[in-house]
Amino acid sequence: MVSMRLLIIEDEKKTAAHLKKGLSENGFTVDVAYDGSEGSQLASAGAYALIVLDVMLPRQDGWAILGQLRGGGVMTPVLFLTARDRVEDRVKGLEMGADDYLVKPYAFSELLARVRTILRRGSSAQQEVLRMADLEIDTRRHKVTRAGRNLHLTRREFVLLSCLARSAGEVVSRTRIVEEVWDINFDTGTNIVEATMRRLRAKVDDPFEKPLIHNVRGIGYVLESR
Amino acid sequence: MFAALAMCSSPVKSEATPARSQRRPWSLVARLAVFYTLATTALLLVTMAVLYGVVVRYSDANDNLFLNDKLRAVRADLAVKKTNGGELLVEEVASEPSDYFVRVLDRRTGKVLAESPEMGKWLWPSVFPAPPPNGHIPEEGSEYKTSAGKWFLLMSAFAEIDRMMPRPVVLQIAQDRSDDKAFADFFRNLLLAVLVGGAGCSAAVALLVARRALRPLEQMVAAMKRVQASYLQPRLNRDRWPKELDSLAAAFDEMLARLKESFERLSAFSADLAHELRTPIQNLRGEAEVALTRTRTADEYREVIELSIEEYQGLANMIDNLLFLARAENSETPLNRLTFKIGPEIDIILDFYDAAAREQNIGLSRQGDADLYADAMLVRRALSNLVSNALQHTSAGGQVLLTVKQANGSVEIHAQDTGSGIGPEHLPRIFNRFYRADAARSSNSGGVGLGLAIVKSIMDLHGGSVTAESKPGEGTIITLRFIQSEQMSRSDQHRTNLQPLV
Q1: pTM above 0.80, yes or no
Q2: Looking at A120, A147, A173, which one is the last position of a domain?
Q3: Closest Cα in chain A to B310
Q4: Which tens digit of pLDDT belongs to each residue from A135-156?
Q5: What is residue B170's three-state secondary structure?
């Protein structure tokens, strides 16, 4: 598979460096622009699959670049990064044609997930049956089997497992899990998810030889066959 | 007078802020002085107009009466006179010039039969008014100004000479009123002078009085200027001021008190914040430094990094919570109020904490349900904080119970635990930021003492309240009270019905 080209427009060198490193290691080809004018030139010229755009930039801010791009007919998806998270800012960004919005400080896994979501968007319909090794999740009939054996999960455990399975192989952050499974988008302060996850693993992994759900400490969980 | 006013108001103006684009209201001193002066002047004007009118009218009436009398007397004299000749008027008219004049004209020929000396110089027969018919004598004469500028009052009447052999004549009589006119003019000028002088004096007095009356205001400004941000004293002390400024002084003092309180809260908050940042940063630094003191295995490095990510997450959460509090305090948080069933919302939160509670062997349950008109996400957040808090303070085998009660006009949610309870000395402060009853509590039990502060700010945003009761050793009940106005929720339901479902 040809790796996708991403453009990062970010004036803060350290941020740009870790973004580039992280995204490159996850299979993307990454270009970096350190100011607005360079960024908008590259963005209009190059064929990028996605642009990661910081709002606060010297000379030309993120809003202006986005406006210029969309005005010039460049419809490359844009993921905004910002330290400001007032509701108006969010709305402004989305109205101007940004595809998503992340507030600093964010987890890198979160950024990666959003990037992948945007790139995937519209490309594939949701699968009815999710598979990972010998685990099979039938999302339509709410049925989970592993090695042919029926697993009896609660409704919440089912949603949790599907959430991991849809991003199989990727680390899903705790924040994202809490948001997707319980629709809670605020800090719950404690590592409450762990307890629920332990119960899920007791059903999905413990009776079997090879665990599929792994804890990535400090970040979240991943469903993969190691 | 107005020049004086302008001068007076200018020093007041120069102290104020530079001119703004819109017109500034008048200075109070100018206002008071102008109104006072206008009132005084109007009063003076009316008084003098009346005085002038009375005097002038009296002198007019006097002159008319005199002429009328004279006319009557001369006519009576003529009636008994034998005719003939120029000697006719010798007795009736003083031969030397006096201040009144008489003339007799033949009625048929218009020929002058007799006249006072010098009368012909200014007062030709034609300038007199026509005599009233039927031998009446006019009550009021007409005024006439000669080309030489002298004023006369003129009257005329029909008369007869010699009743035995009547000869009809016209009698013309005039009085020199120049002196009266001169007096009236003088009197008018005098009154005008008094008026202008009086107005000027009253303006000066008004200025003095107004300035004096407003002096306490300047003193108050001076007192206010002495107040400094770092030291919110001295108070104005309401007893020192006149009655009208009393409430201003009191309001100012109250404002100072509030300011002082928030200043103190703010600085305490900054200190707490700095303190709370120290611990995680110390942890990060310590871990990293120790890790670098010698070469370690990849797994060891990994562990350091993983630990640091947890610290970072904690810091990020703290920032989120602080921002939430700051915005709630400035009412920047928009409320998306809807009417919804609170029961299912509580159940979601209980479900979220269910696994953790089971592990700790704590029972989690709910009782009751109600319609609530509120921002569902914020209510969830408050509930989540309450449950999380209750779980932290309850030991194995305990219970956490959420009860919904509907009282008239309000919905109450009680979060009751059978935990360790809160000492009475801590109870009033548990809703403060960064306040933790057990100071030594380990930070991994979650939060940095912002949870209940957030609950309180959410309740404040909703115009509700949060209260806590606790018995150490027995448990704590925290009560959220949402005021529910029928009208409020109904109008909103109406509105949401109109909105398209997105």
Answers
A1: no
A2: A120
A3: A218
A4: 999 888 888 999 989 999 988 8
A5: strand
